[in-house]
Amino acid sequence: MYLPKKRGPGFVGFLISNKRWFALGAFIVILAMIAAALCAPFLFDWDSVTKINLSRSLIGPGTDSLLGTDQMGRDLLGRVLWGARITLTVAVSSVAIALLVGVSVGAACGYYNGTLASLVMRIMDSMIAFPRTLVAILIITVAGNSILSLTLAIAISTIPIYVRFFAGPVIALRNREFVLASKSIGVGDLRLLLVHILPNIGSLVIIQATVSLAEAILIGSGLSFLGLGPPPPTPEWGSMIAESRPLLTTHPYVLLAPGCALVLTILSFNIVGDALRDYIDPKSRNA
Amino acid sequence: MLNYTLRRLLLLLPMLFGVSIVVFLVMHFIPGDPAQLAAGPDATAEDVAQIRQNYGLDQPLVTQYFIYVKKIVSGDFGESFQTFTPVLEGIARTLPATIELTAAGMLLAVVIGVPLGIVAALRPRGFLDGSLTTFAVLGISVPGFFLGLILMSIFSASLGWLPPTGRGGWQHLILPAVTLGLPYVATFSRLARSTMMDVLKEDYIRTAYAKGVPGYKVVIKHALSNASIPLVTVFGMDFGRLLGGAVIVETVFAWPGMGRFLIDAIMARDIYVVQGTVLVFAALVVIINLMVDLVYGILDPRITYN
């Protein structure tokens, strides 16, 4: 499970040489979404995507506005691009927070494996059994509707899954020869964990993070759809879909623009996550 | 077995106790004064104080919690601030709808997903196997609310075959159940495929074929019954996620279930309704997991409960 030091052809090279065109396409979509997220403020200013301008409402897609405008007269392309910025920010920061806490608690539980650790694991188990969406809903109820509380809600509801997921490999590594050897020459617990054990689950972290990003976007957009995301007029894909529901039959493009961006992004992260697993751990390919 | 069931039912209590503490605390930290909300915007200060006293909201937190637990044990989940009807009545009204929806969604996932997975396992890398892989990734990538709206626009608005919203006959159930169940068709087919592929490599399968047992019988009797344990495990684990998904699907299709009841209560800061519904959701998850544990014993006689 080593992340190879000397990289071979690289991830893109791996995709091309194995003719994984879908995965390559998905990888390009992710790069494009990141580019959109970074460039959104330079292409459309915040006012043009949030300010109501009824004289321009529901202009169809065309030369005037590439994807058309919504019922409030706001440019859809601009809102979708800003949506990418918000969605990716929420997803990346929530996964980062969850990884930081989840990996440390999971590794500590796996490494020490005492009464406290098994108590923590039991609590995590019961939290996993409880619907994640409901946990997130409760957190947002307390913290209020904002990008920050959406991020925290997704992060906190992900932590138990990570603790569970990362404790296992650490338990397996704890009794391996190289760890015992280091221990026998007097290496301390913290150094053992950080230098000898954690680097060995690095590849797992990368794969899990990619798939988690897809899930974070899925849950985040669902919460926003329910009205628990950042308040309007913030251009979040889930809430854009919720707001344009009445236009489903008359002006479907208003709904399809954020919807397709959302599906494409989640799909891409899932496909790239799968490909990344094959790239890092070729043994899993037939699983 | 009976002993084990009783012990597990007893273990249910501390778990619900834990959930009730968490939910109680969460509700306490919600911004806004519930007494003020219950009294309405035009209420005088005396009215608000009166309501606070009536609901016991002027008591210390620990006392409030014990009052709350005492009431729950006696079947009193409190009253809704919005409708002034007992919370239990609301739960009794909405719970059947949620159970109907989740059961239909799960049934769909099992009845469609498992056979698809079995057929794919019998012909690995065949056409069906390949399409199933694509379908599985799509299935977990399309958000339920988006899928629901697309299905609604096709089958209700354009074709007019099915009613778009509400609950009624079986026609009303189709779109919400498909929306809820489709991602799980994907998960179950993938899982059925991989466990079946493992089981089909076993010696006893080869022995069965060698004895001359017909192919379908080997697959169904010898292979499937051994592959079913991981399937049941995932069924139990996914049930919680399915309930979470039901909250969203109920909102899309205006399905009068407990998820919508909860979301509406959250929006109105109706704390007793939120407390009650979350507690019932938790109990449902625990009960399903207990049932899964008991089903293991039926599927695999080697598993005992001592």
Record keyword descriptors for this entry:
heterodimer; A: 287 residues; mainly alpha; elongated; B: 306 residues; 78% helix
Cα separation of the termini of chain A: 16 Å
Main sheet overview of chain A: none
Question: If you average the pLDDT of chain A, what whole number results?
Answer: 83
Q: What is the approximate shape of chain B?
A: flat
Structural class of chain A: mainly alpha
* Discrete helix count of chain A: 12
Q: Residue share in helices of chain A?
A: over 70%
Order of helices and strands of chain B: HHHHHHHHHHHH
What integer is the average pLDDT of chain B? 82
Strand content of chain A: under 5%
Low-confidence region ranges of chain B = none
Radius of gyration of chain B: 24 Å
DSSP strand count of chain B: 0
Which stretches of chain A are poorly predicted, pLDDT < 50 over at least 5 residues? none
Oligomer type: heterodimer
SS content category of chain B: mainly alpha
**What percentage of residues of chain B falls in helices of 4 or more residues?**
over 70%
Give the largest interface pair and sizes: A-B, 38 and 44 residues
Q: Give the H and E element order of chain A.
A: HHHHHHHHHHHH
